[in-house]
Amino acid sequence: MTRTALVLSAAAIAFAAVPALADQQAGAQHGAAHQAPATSGSPMVHVPVIGADGKSLGMVMLQDTPSGVLVTTDLKGLPAGQHGFHFHEKGLCDAKQKFTTAGAHFTAGNPQHGLLVAASHHGGDMPNAYVGADGALKTELLNAGVTLASGPTSLADADGSALVIHAKPDDYKTQPSGDAGDRIACAVVAAPKR
Predict the structure, then answer these.
(1) Looking at per-residue confidence, does 129 or 40 come out higher?
(2) Domain residues for 120?
(3) CA gyration radius for the chain?
């Protein structure tokens, strides 16, 4: 896998694709969030992802780093193509309600949505996720606009947050959510246990 980086704004989010963490993913169990040892001292949090039918699609692994939250996906069964990929404000993933229970985007105090708009955009904004013809999404990126530690940009606040995958790609500018369409997958993010 080649190493690429896209810096979208000095004050907002930097993303980097890095090699897969397949060895750390191997211990993930279906149906419950748990932790694996992490080399940086911050625990890696495994969160199960469910589809619109309520069935498991795999795991997302999250780890705090000095630069933000490293997001690693190991998912199968998604529609091929580009999909909006965001953190949302509430840790509630109810498939029967089409994941509307996850609320709006996690803003981290920034009112505008879109990686192509203002220098200050939602902390939960991330680049679109590309799913291949095999329905798999295996990627890593770094979201420098959020953290798992306590504070105003924490994904793991009192009501948690959710990682949501949308049916369409985010156009990075339409308010309030990039015109990314229905929510097709969801994972609850809560505070890591120390």
Answers:
(1) 129
(2) 45-189
(3) 15
57: nearest Cα among 100, 99, 16, 17? 99
String of DSSP letters for 38-71: -TTSSPEEEEEEEETTS-EEEEEEEEEETTEEEE
Is the model's pLDDT at 25 over the cut of 60? Answer: no
Average pLDDT of the residues in 8-34: 32
**Residue 112 pLDDT level (bands cut at 50, 70, 90):** confident
Q: Tens of pLDDT along 142-185? A: 999 899 999 999 999 889 999 999 999 988 888 887 789 999 99
Distance of alpha carbon 86 from alpha carbon 166, whole angstroms: 8
How many structural domains comprise the chain? 1
In a domain, 34, yes or no: no
**Which CATH number do you get for residue 68?**
2.60.40.200
Helix (H) or strand (E) holding 22: helix 22-25
Angle, alpha carbons 161-166-170 (nearest 5°): 100
Residue 22 lies in a domain: no
Nearest alpha carbon to residue 28 among 48, 51, 8: 48
Q: Is residue 158 part of a domain?
A: yes
